Amino acid sequence: MSFFFAAKRKPGWMAVLTCGGMVTLAHVVRNGAGRPEVRQLESFAIENDLVAALKRLRSAFRIESYACTTLIGADACNVTQMDAPPVPADERKEALRWALKEMVDYPIDNACVDVLDIPDAGLPTGRSPGVLVVSAAEQSVRSCAAPFEAAKIQLDAIDIQELAQRNVAALFEDENRGLVFLRLDENGMMLTLSFRGELVAARRGEISTQQLNSADAEQAARARERLMLEFQRSLDNFDRQHSHIPVSKVVLACCPVVEHLADDLRDSTSVPVVEMDLSSVIDFPANPELREGHCQVRNLLAIGAALRAPAGGAS
Question: For the chain, what is the HEC assignment?
Fold first, then answer.
């Protein structure tokens, strides 16, 4: 999914993410059928002015020589599952745009809208294939792009967190099996279901590692209980809506670490739960710090954003 495209430059993508007073650069190259390679991963503090920081990085790293992408904020976009409308392919996006009219709180006329097909392999006879409709207010997209434009960094794409997470999750999939990926950090949680490299479903939540690691034991226990309930409900919902997709495992990515969380998740489901280890699916010879789990999770979205398919290919 992309809101706008331009010509590709060097191989791979450079993700430029701004979050929490930091700018993170991640350059990832996909090596055909081989393992992707993280060729650059660096983070810098934004001292005062974001545009000034981006200008410095553009000059220092010759960012203009890369195909660049960034992520729009999770609160600035919507991902809505809908039935595929019975219209010709070239009319589908507009049909779904108007179907969204009552579901969003911004003008849909000039909103940015894209459509992702949900894999229909094994779909029971008579059931229509679903789609995920990604939408964002035009002003939200312009606000996301504005600092980059001011810094003269050309964005080839603006993507969403769900697809960045999907890009990482797809690397852990078993053949012809679905994969659930649970990411938790200090900002909240995201649970995705992917199948054959495509996003099938996504759920966001407010439960964070900060709550789970609270010094208040009672508050931490309540947060963990809510997380277990949300996790079980999500898996049940995935199974009801996508029963034709057998899930082989759940991958957990958590930063900072929440002790015994993986064990608790294992106790709540019959599906195997494993903790994410990027070293099993990605090479990063230039960034040995990525051997550390907390570093992997902290940079997961940046790496995922840079794992986009080549320009002109599927998103």
Answer: CCCCCCCCCCCCEEEEEEECCEEEEEEEECCCCCCCEEEEEEEEECCCCHHHHHHHHHHHHCHHHCCEEEECCHHHEEEEEEECCCCCHHHHHHHHHHHCCCCCCCCCCCCEEEEEECCCCCCCCCCCCEEEEEEECHHHHHHHHHHHHHCCCCEEEEECHHHHHHHHHHHHCCCCCEEEEEEEECCEEEEEEEECCEEEEEEEECCCHHHHCCCCHHHHHHHHHHHHHHHHHHHHHHHHHCCCCCEEEEEEEECCCCCCHHHHHHHHCCCCEEECCHHHCCECCCCHHHHCHHHHHHCHHHHHHHCCCCCCCCC
At the second CATH level, the architecture of 74-137 is 2-Layer Sandwich (3.30)
pLDDT in tens, 226-263: 999 999 999 999 999 888 899 999 999 999 999 999 99
Q: What is the domain partition of the chain in residue ranges?
A: 74-137, 169-276
Whole-structure pTM over 0.90, yes or no? yes
pLDDT band at 23 (very low <50, low <70, confident <90, very high): very high
pLDDT tens-digit readout, 110-141: 899 999 998 876 666 566 678 999 999 999 99
